[in-house]
């Protein structure tokens, strides 16, 4: 029997599967070919792609010099250890760097907070930290009812005090370093240590940089004050590296290419001139791969330290004035009736340019540790505190009277007590009889000023009767006073200047107080601007502490080329006749130079001074106010404004001694301080002229004469510009 040969039969579905596999494999090969042949170069470039990160490194700030070229503020170089965190750096990597660095340097642990200890404990003890979460809480987390943040918060709350005190001193040092390393921003250098870095630490870290990724050794800086605390409050402060940019100005500085940990001026001159002092930052380009690893670093520009400021202040004069304040404050404090006396202020100013020659203030405070009184700098009080200043403002009152036709030069009034219904008696310090405007300034007649104010207010004085005045007189007088700088900001190149208090009560008696300086309050800087306006013939000049901005130079303590000269700025010219101003100038001359003047015999006549004294009845509102209940004690404020020489003034002065005494125990500290300040100015001038005469050759003498003439020319230009305006 013939057997049939069997046929091998492959099912149709299996053939389809083989065909599909073949087709897919072909497509894969085709796709790989496209990737390699068509787009290969593009993908190679993408793999090798790098990113350029431009980093700004800080540079030392500009210096400050006084008007004679003496260094006031400088930079002290410091050895520093920094850390730059790369993008994508993990916590454990930072911890390893901290542990290695802790073996090489000492690090203060005082700044470690409790939260820092807890975070570090969790990092060092992950298993124990996990045990602080219950099974129920873990289940809630897995059910997405709790977040990682919630669990971490629970762990922090459950760490005990004993647990965070488990760290050894060595571990705390690691924590202190780790805290600094992790607080920095990616690719921004962070100061790890810049105080007390020893040469040994600096050297050993430098030698081990290859084992400390991100760590570097460099030179940092700190501010140095050549005259200690003298004028320090006015010079201002700079933020430290820990705080960096002020939180309230963060967006402003970041938009101007600052780093978050940059140090900036945070008060007064340092803040006001931040744009000038901070310098041109060094620019470094970090080239990184896609993972954020730094492949190469290139220096784009070396940077330049900040520009230098030349202040208008004469530091020799400043020191002499501060000494005078201290001597007279201590002397007055030892007398009866001066329990509340604790401060005094002086401003000396060039009345032709607005340059501040000296801005001094002192305050007596009790040392909390020793219980002893000690003297502290309070120069800022010249612009930040205001007081009733008394009769010093009477020059403005007389000129306001002229302007409003309430009086004319030579107008006479009878000085006797004024009895106004429902008002305390209004009188001068003594009955003077019939006086004119000059005598009223010379002897400081209150009644003359009262009657001038009554006329301005459209009223009429009737003994024992009511006094009705137009309340618009308050605005009339204040508007006029503001032309001198009283009751308005002076425009000084410092922040936080106060404008004082304007009394709100418009009863007639307060208008009379206003014109003798016993209602509104003024700062001592306002008094300096006011008397300078009278001294220079009616031009209110903007006071300024910065005289020049100069380019920095490499030579130690040398001045570079002048970049900007701060020129005199006239804020306004008094809308008054020249002869009226000259009349008040004559009254001020008589106050100081003629017998009977309230400042006569206090100042040497050789420098021909002029001025006006002030004594104001006021209420104490100082640091001891809480000790007196509802009734503030009555005190007397003392003031003095003046200038010299009276014909061609070159220096103006304002002295203010608040809460000087109680009762009638006048110690004349205002005049004693004023005399010593004037003496210091003219003695220094004499010494310098003699020194120049002894040292200079004929060519130098000619140059000195030309400098004086140039200063006089500036004053003339200011006057001419004001007249044109």
Mean pLDDT: 87
**Can you name the CATH architecture of the largest domain?**
3-Layer(aba) Sandwich
Distance between the termini: 139 Å
The number of domains is 3
What is the molecular shape? Answer: elongated
The radius of gyration computed from the alpha-carbon positions, rounded to a whole number of angstroms, is 38 Å
Largest sheet: 7 strands, mixed
Helical content stands at 25-40%
| Helix-and-strand structural type | alpha+beta
Subcellular location: Cell membrane; Membrane
Keywords: Cell membrane, Cell shape, Cell wall biogenesis/degradation, Membrane, Peptidoglycan synthesis, Transmembrane, Transmembrane helix
Pfam families: PBP_dimer (PF03717), Transpeptidase (PF00905)
GO cellular component, one term: plasma membrane
């Amino acid at each position: 029997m013939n057997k049939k040969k069997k046929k091998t039969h492959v099912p149709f579905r299996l053939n389809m599967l083989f065909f599909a596999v073949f087709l897919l494999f072909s497509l894969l090969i085709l796709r790989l070919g496209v990737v390699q042949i068509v787009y290969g170069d593009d993908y190679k470039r993408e793999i090798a792609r790098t990113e350029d990160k431009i980093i700004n490194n800080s540079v030392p700030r500009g210096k400050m010099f006084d008007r004679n070229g003496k260094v006031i503020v400088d930079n002290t170089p410091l050895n520093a250890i920094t850390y730059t965190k790369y993008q994508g750096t993990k916590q454990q990597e930072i911890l390893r760097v901290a542990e290695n660095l802790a073996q090489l340097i000492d690090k203060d642990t005082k700044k470690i907070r409790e939260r820092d200890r807890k975070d570090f404990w969790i990092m060092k003890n992950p298993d124990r930290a996990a045990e602080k979460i219950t099974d129920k809480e873990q289940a809630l987390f897995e059910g997405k009812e709790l977040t990682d943040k919630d669990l971490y918060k629970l762990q922090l709350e459950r760490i005990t005090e004993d647990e965070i005190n488990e760290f050894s001193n060595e571990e705390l040092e690691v924590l202190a370093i780790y805290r600094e390393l992790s607080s920095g921003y990616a690719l921004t250098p962070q100061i790890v240590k810049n105080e007390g870095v020893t040469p040994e630490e600096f050297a050993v870290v430098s030698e081990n940089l290859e084992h400390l990724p991100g760590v570097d050794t460099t030179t940092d800086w700190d501010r140095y004050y050549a005259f200690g605390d003298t004028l320090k409050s006015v010079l201002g402060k700079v933020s430290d590296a820990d705080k960096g940019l002020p939180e309230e100005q963060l967006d402003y500085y970041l938009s101007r290419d600052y780093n978050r940990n940059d140090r900036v001026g945070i008060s007064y001159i340092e803040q006001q001139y931040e744009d000038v002092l901070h310098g041109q930052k060094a620019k470094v380009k970090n080239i990184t791969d896609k993972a954020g690893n730094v492949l190469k670093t290139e220096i784009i520009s070396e940077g330049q330290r900040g520009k230098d400021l030349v202040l208008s202040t004469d530091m020799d004069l400043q020191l002499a004035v501060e000494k005078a304040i201290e001597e007279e404050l201590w002397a007055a404090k030892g007398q009866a009736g001066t329990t509340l006396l604790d401060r005094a202020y002086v401003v000396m100013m060039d009345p032709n340019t607005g340059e501040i020659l000296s801005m001094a203030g002192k305050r007596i405070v009790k040392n909390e540790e020793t219980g002893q009184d000690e003297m502290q700098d309070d120069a800022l009080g010249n612009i930040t505190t205001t007081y009733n200043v008394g009769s010093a403002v009477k020059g403005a009152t007389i000129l306001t009277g002229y302007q409003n036709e309430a009086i004319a030069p030579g107008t006479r009034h009878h000085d006797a007590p004024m009895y106004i219904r429902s008002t305390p008696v209004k009188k001068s310090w003594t009955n003077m009889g019939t006086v004119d405007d000059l005598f009223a300034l010379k002897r400081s007649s209150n009644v003359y000023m009262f009657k001038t104010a009554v006329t301005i207010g459209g009223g009429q004085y009737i003994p024992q009767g009511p006094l009705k005045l137009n309340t618009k007189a308050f605005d009339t007088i204040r508007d006029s006073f503001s032309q001198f700088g009283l009751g308005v900001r002076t425009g000084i190149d410092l922040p936080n200047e106060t404008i004082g208090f304007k009394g709100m009560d418009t009863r007639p008696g307060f208008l009379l107080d206003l014109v003798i300086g016993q209602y509104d309050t003024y700062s001592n800087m306002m008094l300096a601007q006011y008397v300078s306006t009278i001294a220079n013939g009616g031009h209110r000049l903007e006071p300024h502490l910065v005289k020049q901005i100069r380019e920095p130079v490499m030579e130690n303590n040398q001045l570079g080329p002048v970049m900007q000269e701060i020129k005199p700025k006239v804020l306004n010219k008094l809308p008054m006749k020249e002869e009226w101003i000259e009349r008040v100038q004559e009254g001020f001359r008589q106050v100081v130079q003629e017998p009977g003047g309230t400042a006569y015999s206090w100042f040497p006549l050789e420098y021909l001074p002029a001025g006006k004294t002030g004594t104001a009845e006021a209420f104490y509102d100082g640091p001891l106010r809480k000790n007196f209940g509802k009734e503030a004690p009555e005190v007397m404020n003392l003031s003095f404004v003046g200038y010299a020489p009276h014909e061609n003034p070159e220096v103006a002065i304002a002295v203010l001694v608040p809460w000087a005494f109680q009762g009638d125990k006048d110690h004349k500290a205002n005049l004693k301080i004023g005399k010593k300040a004037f003496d210091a100015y003219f003695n220094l001038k004499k010494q310098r002229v003699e020194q120049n005469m002894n040292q200079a050759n004929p060519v130098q003498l000619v140059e000195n004469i030309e400098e004086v003439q140039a200063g006089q020319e500036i004053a003339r230009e200011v006057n001419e510009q004001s007249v044109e305006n």
